[in-house]
Amino acid sequence: MTRLEKQLVKEMADCLFYLDRPGASPVDEEKAKKILRDRVPKKMVKAIQSAPAPGSIANIPGLADKLIVLWPGHQPGGGTTGERAWNIRLASIMRDLICANGGECKLFRHSLKPYGVRQNAMRSKMISDAPNAVINAELHYNGVSYDSAHGHEFMFYGTPALAGAVRDSWQATFAHSKARHDNGIRKVGESDRGAGFLRKSPCASILHEPFFYSNPSEKSFYLARLEEIARVNVVGYSKYLMEFSH
Ligand SMILES: [Zn+2]
Predict the structure, then answer these.
(1) pLDDT given at position 22
(2) 108 C-alpha to ligand 1 centroid (Å)
(3) Which of 51, 116, 143, 237 could join 80 via S-S bond, C-beta 3.0 to 4.6 A?
């Protein structure tokens, strides 16, 4: 195991709760090793290791006493190259940032059961373990088999306010970057990707697709910006909480 893998295993053991094994949470170290089955690309290792700790990041308002639930995409399986490791690291930085600003954050891990089944389990788990959650978010990045697809996109079902606030935060931060392409926010259809997750959420929800790993310029621009992306996401949550949530 590399040093990074050890670090990720520790983070998972510290913070991820099993969806399908409520009695066994948080994840123990042996389980965490199994979650981290896929190889982490070298570039990813560098990006993840160079991300600074969020302890010194400036104050973000509106988070005090708010409970936010994060689901790092593809725990335990699937996803684009390296995505599972990146998602868990991003979630972990976001959690630290939320907690440093007086909020509370729980990281949940999807069930091993088929996607259709786990939507209901997800909802029950949130209602039992995070009944006061005000934001429910699933973290991903995109990937296709060709390199021209690009842009960030945020999906919702129900209120568009949360996805809108996160999108605004992305636009504000990356407005001057050539790598920025805004695909906007999108209400998912009944059978769309992520539909079950968003539809079953007991509170405002969002599914993040911040960039395309399959696009070389987006990959090199965004991979190295873990801390910045975490902050941009949390600033978006803050805007939503201050303007729309009471
Ligand atoms: Zn994904």
Answers:
(1) 44
(2) 15
(3) 143
Band of pLDDT at residue 124, cut at 50, 70 and 90: confident
138-162: buried (b, 16+ CB within 10 Å) or exposed (e) per residue?
A: bbbbbbeeeeebbbbbbbbbebbbb
Q: Are residues 146 and 103 in the same domain?
A: yes
* Interval between CA 79 and ligand 1 midpoint (Å): 5
Judge whether 179 lies within some domain. yes
In a domain, 204, yes or no: yes
Assigned domain for 207 exists: yes
Q: Tell how far the Cα of 121 is from the centroid of ligand 1, in angstroms.
A: 20
CA of 41 to the centre of ligand 1 (A): 16
- Show the domain range for 98: 62-243
Q: What is the structure's pLDDT at 194?
A: 72
Q: Which of 113, 140, 104, 129 is nearest to 26 (CA)?
A: 129
CA of 246 to the centre of ligand 1 (A): 31
